[in-house]
Please model this.
Amino acid sequence: MRDLYKRLGISPQASDNEIGRAIEACSHTALKADASAVLGVKSRREEYDALHATLRDIGLLRARLGLTHGRYWQDSVANDFSLPPDNTCSNHDELIGRVTHAVRLHNRWQRWHGPWLLAGLLGLGIAIGMALCHWLL
Amino acid sequence: MPIARFSPFELLLLKSRKQADTAGLMLLAWVLASNGQFTEADRLRLDEVAATFSHGHALEPIFEIASGQALEAVQLAAEIMQKDCCGEQAYPFLRLAIQMAIADGKPTTANHHILRFLADLLGVSPPEFARLFNDVAGKTFENPDDPSRTGYWQAKEHHRHQQEQARQEQQRQQERHSRERHSRQEQSRQEQSRREQAHSGGSGGHRQEQRHHSSHQSPPGDRARRALIVLGLEPGASRSDIRKAYRRLAQTHHPDRFFAQGEAMTASASARFQRIKNAYEYLMQVS
Model:
């Protein structure tokens, strides 16, 4: 399937007027005929848009998972919906990293006897406050 | 440094007894949700499948995540599946995915693309995947339709139109049958009364019968119209149109094409073919 929006140079959220103008300005006869037949009819456009969104998702997933040259990713779908690989870290590695970080914080808190430390600091604060009050007044 | 909040799917994975199963369920839910909305039947289907999995948590969060179309969750699930089950290990999972896709008959175009993505993800080559699909669905794995072309919509609307026509035709036939039955009863009753009249010496009965008969014959235009419907044409089609439609239909419905699919299919195809041929011959005679 071709990405008609991309080929017409408009965004998938374009209004009917914008689409009409883009189709008018298009010089490719076959594309013009197909675009007006698909995007010009409301029910057809809705169905096309749903599939378009799914394919965009798949294109993004393939780019992130290194599957842009998969054997099933070919023809016009691959041409129009492939994205350049982005450098975002893998979601799984990120999850592992966050879990490790959370575990480290938790362990540090336990090692320093966190609750006792907190209670001690609170008690010290109250004592200093009382001493200050006593001295100032 | 504060840690970013864990998403619902990440929490589910951390709780899971087997991460690959949780990820597999997430991807199956994605296949189901890509059809539009997540229906009650889809939930039951996934529930059934989940009985064989050892994930060890409730399915409700997965339904919610899949309905929300969370791409990040799908990506995470895909990463886990890619890591944990590859090649032949993925066959049972892919079989389930195919089952989900064909649950409502033919897989939708979105499902076609998702199945292809899963096959690529799990390192299953196209011939192997086509064989798997054939095993599960009993059909060949065809190329997905292309809704960005005018032809797709024309074919779809033509198909719908034909279905509509077939339904109307069926209705008409039913009505005709009931009318005929009614008229036959009427006729037999009249005949009986005539016989009684003849018995008593009346002689005008024969003429009356002739008139009666001719009034019940279908008008000549009716048969031509029906023949045109058989060929999928509108009234007023030219001879060349009729010939073209006949050749096209004869090719698709020729019994030889169905030989491999068993005797029943061949028989039904030959009945169709005969009907098409009769319609064509009649139209060629009258036009």
Q: What stands out?
A: Residues 42-65 of chain A form the longest helix (24 residues). The radius of gyration of chain A is 30 Å. Chain A has a mean pLDDT of 89.
